[in-house]
Amino acid sequence: MLSKKYSKVAGQSSVIRQIFEFGKKRALEVGAENVFDFSIGNPSVPAPKSVNETAIRIMNENDPCFVHGYPSAVGYDDTREAIANSLNKRYAMNYHKNNIFMTNGAAAAITLCFRAVSDYGSNDEIIVIAPYFPEYKCFIEGSGVKCVEVEADTKDFQIDFDKLSAAINENTRAIILNSPNNPTGVVYSEETIKTLSSILEEASNKYGRAIYIIADEPYREIVFSGYTVPYIPKYYKNTLVCYSYSKSLSIPGERIGYIAFSDEIEDADLMFGTIGAVAREMSYVGVPSLFQMVVRDCVDDTADISVYETNKNLIYNALKDIGYSVVEPNGTFYIFPKCLEDDANAFCEKARNYDLLIVPSDSFSIKGYFRLSYCVPTARVEKAIPLFEKLYKDYN
Amino acid sequence: MLSKKYSKVAGQSSVIRQIFEFGKKRALEVGAENVFDFSIGNPSVPAPKSVNETAIRIMNENDPCFVHGYPSAVGYDDTREAIANSLNKRYAMNYHKNNIFMTNGAAAAITLCFRAVSDYGSNDEIIVIAPYFPEYKCFIEGSGVKCVEVEADTKDFQIDFDKLSAAINENTRAIILNSPNNPTGVVYSEETIKTLSSILEEASNKYGRAIYIIADEPYREIVFSGYTVPYIPKYYKNTLVCYSYSKSLSIPGERIGYIAFSDEIEDADLMFGTIGAVAREMSYVGVPSLFQMVVRDCVDDTADISVYETNKNLIYNALKDIGYSVVEPNGTFYIFPKCLEDDANAFCEKARNYDLLIVPSDSFSIKGYFRLSYCVPTARVEKAIPLFEKLYKDYN
User: What's B344's domain CATH number?
Assistant: First the structure.
């Protein structure tokens, strides 16, 4: 007999994954060029040339026992130093290597943070802003604490501070922020971060312990002209930044990222070791060795992510012109328009009549929207636009 | 304020790690050639040439979006098929790809298994045979269940079946076996596996649910002349084999391994999905992409691990001749002699007078022994032998 908890959900796949699998099947029937799979957020641009060149150079120039050997569980010193220096330069921080803890991508980073700032089976709560990446709830509840959903202000998908203030209480341990945001594409403005910081500072004082911001930032580099992504630790000291090289270097399969926090964070002396204790218990023995060295040497490179902005401009302008209600994305490769009926599932089913594969917003804990991932060739976006027009006409 | 549980152990490092750090410091004082660091079990032979060659070929011949892209959380189909085929050939099994779940090394594999077969916070128990790899306890207790220690038969470090039988009860969910064994170097004999299987079958029948064997086998390929490592699923169907390429391919830093189970295992239809549900909650998004492909193409290769047997013969014969009481290792790169006084910590302290860095057995939950890791250059073993002789004379 297996674990009751896990066997109950054995083999359940996410709605996103189901749509993706449907798309692959459908492509066999009608040809891949006639299926418009906008379901998955998988980078569509290649890694910069420097990534493979660096990996090959490292393998050619070094002892394999070193290249493929055990790194320390916290990551290589020189990789962590390179990341600290890069962040210091970009954001005028004072990071040193012990402010950086290497992780297997951002998913592992946020999970380590959830567990480092809360206690399994206690009354602890962690706040998410809906709509949100569905794995947050899984990771938070897997950490044995409560996932508290606060709906965003849907006029611009910034934070609704009345709703947030009402949700904060003595059990609030952290809030997870994702900016640029999956699924909305929105970047939280400086004003949003400032207001949030003052609310959290007040609440931390009131309840006598820090409420941490866990800043999940895999999309930080994918930001469109005219926008910048505020670096949250500049505004709020009790911030844990969770980063991944999946999107910036287009290497999501290599599972590499980090947690960064400044010396100003509450319990700074314990933070590094506490995260390490969580990682040990979760059997995160270390982050892949070769790609830690690649990141060290490619820390300031990025893949050519300009196609995402090209695609955003095309799809955003087209949907708006057709008549869809949609907030303009400031970054990522997602857009999150309103459905043309209340039931997002029914709407996305109808879109399938045109082989448009989009994700109903229920997956992101909000009703009436759909997510479209435009990390696809631009030609595919262009070809899909008339289909969205037909779909609109069916409703009007 | 941070997690009570984890911040309490923040920054605590294992005794093994402390000795290793001491060795690095001591090397600065007296020269690396005069420090005999036998503390760490880190492979000392390079990966076979095919590893780097394959990695470079894959990068040169394929689209980087594919090479570094997201694999499915369970692993690539063709990697899992290659592993299944290799095991079928070697052990006459009938594995197919859905009997293989890729993991970030053996540590992740065993942790996923612990959680898949038990329930957090229940009365469930998992048995370990002492002496054992200290992380087992951390991973089992981190899974919210009880770690039950059963001392091995110390005359040969096979299983003491009277003690084992006394430890099995209605709460027993699994037993973790490690053969070839860290720290003793012993391989469990076919007789041991047969007796164990019949005891577990009887107990499974008595209590009406399977007791699983979790076979932790990172050292499977490091086995010395005259010995073979029984493939446990041939003897006991309810076996989850946990494997790592860390030692066989000498790539411990790349974190790649798998869980294998046959279609005959109890709850076979749920096993794969249940393991997947645990992996999802623990934010194990996927196993590094490039090295999954390397393993696919190098699945039957091994590093030149013959040096370990050379070293074993040297150190085992020398220690025995000097007068130490020691069981001959059949594999791994460890040996586990009796200390010359009851207090292993005191003994290992005295060994430091000769710059012999060895690990007291208390770390492995047994008293009076020390572990010596001979994954070092042969010359270092040779040079250390007279020092072990001097140490012996100090006691006699």
Answer: 3.90.1150.10
